[in-house]
Amino acid sequence: MDHLTLLLAILYVYTVPCExxxxxxxxxxxxxxxLECVYPLADSVTQIEWFKIKMERESVAIFNPMFRGIIRExxxxxxxxxxxxxxxxxMTLTFYNASEADVGFYSCFLHTFPFGTWEKVIRVVPSDSxxxxxxxxxQMVSEPGENVTLTCQPKEKCLLEEMSWEKIQPQQxxxxxxxxxxxxxxxxxxxxxxxxxxxxxxxxxxxxxIPNVTGSDSGLxxxxxxxxxxxxxxxxxxxxVTDGETNTQYILxxxxxxxxxxxxxxxxTTITVIAYKRRRRQQQRGPFKDFWITQNRxxxxxxxxxxxxxxxxxxxxxxxxxxxxxxxxxxARV
Length: 334
Known about the structure:
12-stranded mixed sheet, 3-stranded antiparallel sheet, 2 helices, 20 strands, elongated, Ig_sub, signal, transmembrane, Ig-like_fold
């Protein structure tokens, strides 16, 4: 019996780490970080307990609306419940002075009445392992209260094996839905918001519908595909939910920007036309100007052949003027 017990223990040690763990949220490790756990339904929460998932579950903290919260000794002065009101369904756990030792999987496990148990799994990763969304491929603007549908379609036309939707935030990534199309299974996460999506074999594109959107729904959404060939594709969309005033300001901003741009285009065009016409006039007047300068020079040379005042070498004598085309011509006697 002892050998059998030892064998079972060894098998447990080697099989548990290999079990696939599905998570609802990925959080980037930070000195001060919060693990969000909000129960989305209206029934009563009778008790909640936070665990860290290792070889076996390690209790971190427990909360009961009647007896309030207890933090386990290993986590004393390091974690606390962000909201400890008896009527709240928000059991977010906040860490301060977190370190690399806090990386791993955490479970927010609730007991509710009358629906029973409910669990959300959160994965904490080092900051250098946290995936950035990258620039969005498309954008959508909506007003509050509308039903918004985001769609994406893979470029490669091949059989899809997996599909997922995520909401990307600076410090965390929430899984909205994940589908294993080859096995016909879907996993709807514990995202605290009603989300509608398609998940069926042979699907060619994916969509997610967010009913009655509010400002908190603004952000980046990522759609991911995995084909049967192993190739992966992702698409990022930005959703902006604006109120009427913000939307009007946005329209006025765009209109004023377009007006300024139009004025700049007109100004640049006018300056270009004036400069072009001035340059043309200068080019056309150039030959005439050269001709005029040549004529002036010839006239000046002609005038310079005559002395400024007639020379006189004595009274009663003839005065002659030298000219290139005339012989000596006597002038009047003085």
